[in-house]
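stage 2 :: seqdesign
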């Protein structure tokens, strides 16, 4: 476990792996009593890449104990095929996390998180569940809330780190935290990108080499919006952006510009209010999402 020595240096011991909630809870409770270490939590679905590692780094900068979880949550997949094809690289993930200096890894089974026979809660997410990802992936954010409420209640971290790459998810989880009145500080970590601009994603490994070349169009389209749209009605720039994506081989679910604070539509932008462009599109069978703040 990474702990502070008297000289303030970080001493790195091996990462500890937990599969069982009770063991993890006991460990954290004992640890809290002995040391006054702040805990940082990084939830993931595995198939880790540098984007995930940037969340680990952000946690290490803030907290003395970094806990990562890997759990492919079946309840947040509205598309069965997407769930079945979701990449699983547990062994290499463990090595990556150890190398990055994560302190604890929680690797539960589905029954550990969702004990059979126990009914699932329904969360009041309101507007966020009706738009963009919420609209195109019915039930997705209920699944996210169901797993996040369990993980946050179990781990009870001081800090939570999630990626801007999943912009709407960050807003949903912030809303969940306030609904449950959890004493955790939320941190949004900027999106890590490949050199051609493509946002790193576990799903990128499912792109064939031809698709991988086309894939960067999603980021260049967002960059186009950012450089050309400075205010007024977003509809004309969104029409061109849509065409750009389709010409590059994408089938677009949505491309939108919204208020960054709550994702309400911007009918006419004053150029000052914080705004974000968001996109979800398919290359073949692979659905990618990305977003870019416009100011
Ligand atoms: P996932 O494993 O896809 O559920 O992602 C776990 C966490 O990593 C989420 O908070 C994501 O937003 C974040 N994440 C995924 N991709 C990136 C990226 N390219 N840059 C930064 N964070 C990311």
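stage 2 :: out
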């Amino acid at each position: 476990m990474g702990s502070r020595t008297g000289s303030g240096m970080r001493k790195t011991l091996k990462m500890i792996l937990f599969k069982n909630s009770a063991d993890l809870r006991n460990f954290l409770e004992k640890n809290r009593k002995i040391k006054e270490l702040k805990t940082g939590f990084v939830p993931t679905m595995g198939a880790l890449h540098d984007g995930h590692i940037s969340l680990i780094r952000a946690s290490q900068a803030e907290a003395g104990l970094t806990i990562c979880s890997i759990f492919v949550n079946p309840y947040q997949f509205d598309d069965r095929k997407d769930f079945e094809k979701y990449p699983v690289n547990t062994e290499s993930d463990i090595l990556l996390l150890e190398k990055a200096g994560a302190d604890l890894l929680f690797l539960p089974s589905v029954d550990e998180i969702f004990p059979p026979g126990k009914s699932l809660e329904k969360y009041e997410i309101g507007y966020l569940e009706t738009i963009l990802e919420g609209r195109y992936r019915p039930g997705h954010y209920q699944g996210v809330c169901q797993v996040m409420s369990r993980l946050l209640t179990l781990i009870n971290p001081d800090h939570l780190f999630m990626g801007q790459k999943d912009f709407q998810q960050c807003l949903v989880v912030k809303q969940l935290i306030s609904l449950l009145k959890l004493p955790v500080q939320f941190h949004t970590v900027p999106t890590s990108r490949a050199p051609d601009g493509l946002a790193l994603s576990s799903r990128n490994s499912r792109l064939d080499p031809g698709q991988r070349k086309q894939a960067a169009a999603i980021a260049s389209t967002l960059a186009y919006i950012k450089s050309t749209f400075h205010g007024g009605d977003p509809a004309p720039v969104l029409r061109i952006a849509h065409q750009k994506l389709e010409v590059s081989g994408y089938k677009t679910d949505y491309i939108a510009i919204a208020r960054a604070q709550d994702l309400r539509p911007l009918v006419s932008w004053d150029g000052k209010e914080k705004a974000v462009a968001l996109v979800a599109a398919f290359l073949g069978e692979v659905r990618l999402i990305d977003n870019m703040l416009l100011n």
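stage 3 :: structure notes
- The chain has a mean pLDDT of 94.
- The first helix runs from residue 21 to 34.
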